[in-house]
Amino acid sequence: MTTAPDLTELLADSPTNWGKWGADDEVGSLNYLTAEQVLAGVGLIKKGELFTLQRLIGDPNGDPVWPGRSPATREMIFDESHWDEGGDGPAFPGGLHYADDKINAFLQGSTQYDALGHVWYDGQIYNGYDARTTVGGLDKASVEPIAQRGVAGRAVLLDMARHLGVAHLEARRTFDHTDLEKCAAAQGIEIKPRDILLIRTNHLDLFFEDEAAFYGDFCEPGLVYSAELVKWFQDKEIPNLVTDTIANEVTTDPHSGVALVLHNALMRNLGIAFTEICDLEKLAEDCAGDGVYEFFYVAAPLKIHRATGAPVNPVVIK
Ligand code: UVW
């Protein structure tokens, strides 16, 4: 039986952007989103129509998360029943009653931005920081600097499901940068340098159809590692990869057998921000309707100190 190589071996010659934006950098390829890119995105606003990309936290139909994580739960702390006779509702002058609740959620669950320091190999996270800086919370490359910065720019939707003529991509289906280029050409657009990439697979359709079967055969479809793909992302200066899958890439690389290779080649090494578990359905429908696949994208992940990721509700404006 052949064993999978480790990431150190597989990515030995893979390029990094470490040091490119200084030894203190913690936001990586988001540095490509200059004021010029923001204005290029704003210039695409024609209809004034908004599309929110977050999945509903607490969705009664289910909350897809990476295996081993649990969906967010919301707990009611106060509601009118707490002021029933003998209840624990606080008494305020004037008779105020109020509703209060809280959530318990994986910061890597639901729609979220990954911190650049979320994954690593070889004892180093993005920009060469020591992986020991993650202990007890990320002291370097947490989601905090991304959240402080905010994300905005020109973006394109690559509707791979529609391009391939399927309702959703099945488990294990892979594609690469050449497929993205073909998809863009079929949609009548060009992927420009510094574009934020939104990729639709609609794979989570299968989660909502049959959750047990979805997790029973868990290997999401998506982008697959090759040296050429990494070079394409680096040459194009892609700042942010946004998808509707849990991990933004094929779960296990079919060639090497290694898991989440692109988390390392693109996020750890190139500093590309990952935005996962988005709902791209309404946006995709609109794009198919008006034939416009490029737009303004803006996202403000929550500011959470030392966190590995943060919930976000990205907004596209067309
Ligand atoms: C893991 O953390 C394993 O994956 P993701 O970034 O998709 O949540």
UniProtKB/TrEMBL annotation:
One of its GO terms (molecular function) is arylformamidase activity. InterPro entries: KFase/CYL, KFase_sf. It comes from the Bacteria. One of its GO terms (biological process) is L-tryptophan catabolic process to kynurenine. This is Kynurenine formamidase. It comes from Gordonia insulae. The lineage of its organism: Bacteria, Bacillati, Actinomycetota, Actinomycetes, Mycobacteriales.
